[in-house]
Amino acid sequence: MSASAPSWRLASRGLYSNASSLPIRTHTHQTRSFIISPRRAADDDKPPAPSTRPNPVLEKFLRENPTIPSSAPKQPRPEDIAGDLSASSIFEDDRRAQVQAATSTKVASDDDAEPNKLTRDPRTTLSITDPNPNARERFERKKVIQMVRKGGRLTKEEFVKRTEREHLTKSHNLKTSVKKLGALARQIQGKRIEDAISQMRFSKKKVAAEVLKQLEFARDEAVVMRGMGLGGLDGEAGSESPVEVSGTMDLVAQTKRKEKAVEVQLKDGKRHLVEDRSEIYIDQAWVGRGPYGTLPDYRARGRVFIMRTPWTSISLLLKEESTRVREFEEREAKRRRQKLDNVWVHLPDRPIQTKQQWYSW
């Protein structure tokens, strides 16, 4: 063994006898046994101490389920305040302004009121609902003056708008041209909404499926938003079929429905039978050009052309059959007036007031 070897290496090999300078530990290969002391066993029976770190998942669950008791001590946090807003809310600045105003003025609240509840500032809401009060007052004053001057009378356009229902809807852009979609618009224009849906259901056109979805959407929206197609206000059956009694149609309802049916003549000269005046029909249908898309057109010799793919939308104006009946009656009345204007009517007989009868008018 070299004399230059360190003492700790010699001691580890048992060649260094001075044990006082470096003790030697000997490990015996024995089976380790886990001995649990009585003090440690008593500590294991105790529940673990609650953690002081906040748990956002647990706090969110306890807020959503207030009936479940919470053993962990709750820490006051800004999110637990009733009526508070999240930090990402667009009204966070208003909330901070309310807090600053409440702390600066120190408004005294009742004992029964919640101390952490924040009240909305009516001035902040008023700035959104009524941004220009002077203009609103001038508009209201103008309308009151108009009603006083007219004596409460309405013009023909205002009376029609108040007594008849209509609904205007526009579809999203469809991947087709104006020429192709215009043919379908002319096909459904003037038809009842159910007849137009049947036409689009059995049409061979590719875009007819999209027009069918738009017709169904427009019909449902008109029923929900405008109350169209629901019959009169006096409890009539409306667009529903007559009541069936024991498999046969109610004769009384069928007779009343036939008596109320009116046959009108349309602008194109066709005759049309109106059985239910609340039924929906398509008064106008037109198309509008949308943006153009791009599509590559690969040609010979490695050339690529750019095609412009058109997008088109369709607009529908829905009205009720009562409007069509009114327009027919107005046309008939105008025709009768024009016919009577051309008929010669003799002058009325008047008593003679002067000596010369030819100057008595």
UniProtKB/TrEMBL annotation:
GO terms for biological process: translation. InterPro entries: Ribosomal_uL22, Ribosomal_uL22_bac/org-type, Ribosomal_uL22_sf. Residues 114-123 have a biased composition (Basic and acidic residues). GO terms for cellular component: large ribosomal subunit. Residues 19-133 are annotated as: Disordered. Keywords: Ribonucleoprotein, Ribosomal protein. GO terms for molecular function: structural constituent of ribosome. Belongs to the universal ribosomal protein uL22 family. This is 39S ribosomal protein L22, mitochondrial. It comes from Extremus antarcticus.
